[in-house]
């Protein structure tokens, strides 16, 4: 029997001895095969507006069926979903107090999506990279039915898992968290593989890519945001969500990011030339609308609730173009998805 095996799911590319897990705590060498602990055990699911992912340029106004298995390959102290992603949670399948959840097959998850009347399956809430075997089996069923796949991810793929994702996923929201020092200090991650994924996905005409950054006032600086903006712009990013931090998990004693700081960073992001910049966890209305990148007229008034955006798209974005001046608007706006 082979003694060590390499997991190729993420940038770590861990070499695992028999009975050893990677830092994700999910992928484990058991009997000469790397298994995904918690395979098929759904820790969160629901029907959401696609705007909640956040995705503003992928069939806005649609609903999506979303779910998660347990796990993540990062250790961010500010994680909003730590109970379903971090190994100090009782939901971790290897936790001493863990009670086994029932297993749902990819076929059963696809049937639930069909029952919900939605046409987009979203892999989200935790980090789908570490349960990508289950994700891609499900995504295949979704594509065979002519429907769509959306992945919300930290983007820390290995080269081979990025290829798999490009074969199966139609829309990505990638969290780009900060500079490389931020990744190493706060996440046990690295910026390089994330930017590689951003560049590869942005270069694919048929994919929709949106990027999200959670801004932590007192840690992120204007200089860092300007640097990040330049790096994203160079790689062809068209849509960037900047979101306010609220106290969480190991950063529960840190104050929330102010609207004033967010507004300054949004301005810096817009100055970089990225055409669509949005605010998250914020009341700043001017950064919640979609405008034409050329004539700057408002095309989508509100991204808050499912249905509203769809009305605007019907009237103001025709075949992916601004109805005022004809400029192409980045994303997918046709009316195909139901739900
Ligand atoms: S998913 Fe990443 S961290 Fe986990 S075992 Fe595989 S390569 Fe290592």
- The low-pLDDT segments are none
Radius of gyration: 20 Å
Biggest sheet record: 8 strands, mixed
Total number of beta strands:
16
Bound molecules: iron/sulfur cluster
State the CATH architecture: Alpha-Beta Barrel
Descriptive report:
The protein has 339 residues and is α/β, with parallel strands linked by helices. The chain has one domain (41-322): TIM Barrel (Alpha-Beta Barrel). It contains 8 helices and 16 strands. The chain has helices at residues 106-116, 132-144, 159-168, 180-187, 191-202, 222-234, 259-271, 308-316; strands at 4-6, 15-17, 27-30, 33-36, 44-49, 63-68, 120-123, 148-153, 171-175, 208-215, 239-244, 276-280, 290-291, 298-300, 317-318, 321-322. The strands form 5 sheets. The chain has an 8-stranded mixed sheet with strand order 5-6-7-8-9-10-11-12. A two-stranded antiparallel ribbon has the order 1-2. Strands 3-4 form a two-stranded antiparallel ribbon. Helix 1 (106-116) links the parallel strand 6 (63-68) and strand 7 (120-123). Helix 1 (106-116) packs across helix 2 and helix 2 runs parallel beside helix 3 (159-168). Bound molecules: iron/sulfur cluster. Iron/sulfur cluster binds at residues 7, 9-10, 12-14, 22-24, 27, 73, 130.
């Amino acid at each position: 029997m082979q003694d060590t095996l390499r997991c190729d799911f993420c940038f770590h590319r861990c070499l695992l001895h028999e009975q050893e897990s990677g830092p994700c705590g999910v992928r484990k060498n058991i009997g000469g095969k790397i298994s995904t602990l918690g395979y098929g055990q759904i820790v969160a699911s629901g029907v959401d507006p696609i705007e909640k992912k956040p995705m503003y340029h992928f069939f806005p106004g649609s609903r999506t069926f979303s779910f998660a298995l347990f796990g993540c390959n990062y250790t961010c102290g500010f994680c909003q979903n730590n109970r379903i992603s971090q190994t100090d949670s009782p939901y971790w399948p290897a936790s001493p107090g863990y009670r086994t959840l029932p297993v749902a097959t990819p076929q059963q998850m696809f049937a639930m999506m069909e029952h919900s009347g939605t046409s987009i399956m979203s892999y989200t809430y935790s980090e789908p990279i570490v349960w990508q075997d289950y994700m891609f089996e499900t995504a295949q069923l979704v594509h065979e039915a002519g429907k769509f796949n959306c992945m919300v991810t930290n983007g820390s793929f290995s080269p081979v898992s990025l290829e798999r994702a490009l074969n199966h996923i139609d829309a990505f929201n990638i969290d780009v968290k900060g500079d490389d020092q931020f990744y190493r200090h706060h996440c046990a991650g690295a910026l390089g593989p994330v930017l590689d994924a951003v560049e590869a996905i942005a270069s694919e005409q048929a994919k929709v890519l949106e990027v999200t950054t959670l801004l932590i006032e007192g840690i992120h600086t204007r200089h860092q945001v300007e640097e990040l903006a330049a790096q994203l712009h160079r790689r062809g990013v068209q849509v960037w969500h900047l979101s306010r931090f609220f106290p969480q998990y190991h950063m529960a004693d840190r104050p929330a990011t102010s609207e004033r700081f967010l507004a300054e960073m949004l301005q810096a992001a817009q100055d970089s030339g990225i055409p669509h910049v949005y605010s998250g966890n914020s009341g700043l209305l001017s950064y919640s609308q979609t405008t034409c990148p050329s004539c700057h007229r408002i095309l989508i008034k509100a991204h808050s609730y499912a249905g509203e955006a769809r009305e605007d798209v019907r009237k103001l974005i025709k075949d992916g173009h601004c109805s005022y001046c004809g400029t192409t608007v980045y994303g997918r706006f046709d009316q195909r998805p139901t739900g």
